[in-house]
Write a structure and sequence with these properties.
Radius of gyration: 32 Å
Order of helices and strands: HH
Number of strands: 0
Helix content: over 70%
Oligomer: single chain
Distance between the termini: 101 Å
């Protein structure tokens, strides 16, 4: 008997639950896909900028050492 009550209770809950429109589901899925795409593109852009800035820092560091060595050799 308790199984039937549980089944009836589930049926009543399903009947009273608000239904989602198909349109809202499609809009939600589209928003999710767009936000994931934006996140991926943002991470790619940040990654390439980080690589460029890392290379630039390395070049500037090497240039600084080269200038320091040249100045040191001119003084002594």
């Amino acid at each position: 008997m308790p199984e039937k009550k549980q089944g009836m209770l589930r049926m009543i809950k399903n009947a009273l639950r608000s239904k989602k429109n198909c349109y809202e589901d499609i809009v939600h899925q589209a928003e999710t896909v767009i936000s994931q795409y934006i996140t991926i593109r943002k991470n790619e852009i940040i990654g390439t900028c980080y690589k460029k800035s890392r290379m630039l820092k390395f070049v500037l560091w090497g240039l600084g050492i080269t200038i320091s060595v040249c100045v040191y050799n001119l003084i002594f």
